[in-house]
Amino acid sequence: MGKNVNLESIFNWAFGVLLVAIGVLNLLLVHPVPGIAYFLLACIYLPPASFLLRKWFDFTVPLLLKILFGLVILLFTLGVSDLGDMLDKW
Predict the structure, then answer these.
(1) pLDDT tens, 19-56?
(2) What is the model's pLDDT at position 3?
(3) Dist. CA 40–CA 24, nearest whole Å
(4) Environment class of 11 (CB within 10 Å of its CB; exposed 0-12, middle 13-18, buried 19+)
(5) To bridge 23 with a disulfide, which of 38, 71, 74, 83 should be the other Cys (CB 3.0-4.6 Å)?
(6) Contact by Cβ (8 Å): 84, 28
(7) What are phi and psi of 60, to 5 degrees?
(8) Which of 84, 70, 68, 71 lies closest to 34, judged by CA?
(9) Which letter does DSSP use for residue 6 in this model?
């Protein structure tokens, strides 16, 4: 258990799981294309996928950019997408 938990890893796991959940909802309720897009966006946040991106492509996304990108994704999901409209009507 020698792994230490920091704020960045908590943010990455939480937002990655949130994107996967939004992807599942889009996949089931709206259309498969946005659902798959959210699954691919979750790869930026989930630590195992982020580790593979760093290992294979030597590419990392800074935390500040992840936070800004996360806010844009969240605002888009709740404001513009069909899923946001469905949640408002529910």
Answers:
(1) 899 889 888 888 888 889 888 888 888 888 888 888 89
(2) 67
(3) 12
(4) middle
(5) 38
(6) no
(7) -130, 150
(8) 84
(9) -
